[in-house]
Amino acid sequence: MLAALAELQSLTAAPQRSDETASLKWVRQSHRYPVWRTSHPFVAGVAVRVICYFPPEQPDTVVVALFAADKATMGDVFYDSVGARADASIDRWYRQMKDKP
Fewest CB within 10 A of the end CB: N or C in the chain? Predict the structure, then answer.
């Protein structure tokens, strides 16, 4: 998990769809906002994902929209609902940012 967060921190710009790597991929199931997922080398029975959003108006910001610590047991259910859940989290983040002085 720390390696995934370190990779996000090391980015110098928001990724583009052509920038996918083994550990950072665009989530095709995203809806309103383009979101990305981190991944890690295979470990049997473990699948950790961080779903993140890169707001275009804040190029040095990464919004962690969702975190799945036990995605292995959820399977496709996680990705089937990731778009709607990420949208709600990102909307909430925008509201919080709007309310800041």
Answer: C
- The predicted-structure confidence for 44-93, as pLDDT tens digits, reads as follows 777 777 889 999 998 888 888 777 656 556 667 777 788 888 899 999 99
CA distance 99 to 74: 35
**Hey, where are the domains in the chain?**
2-99
Distances (CA, A) of 98 to 1, 8, 51, 59: 30, 24, 22, 17
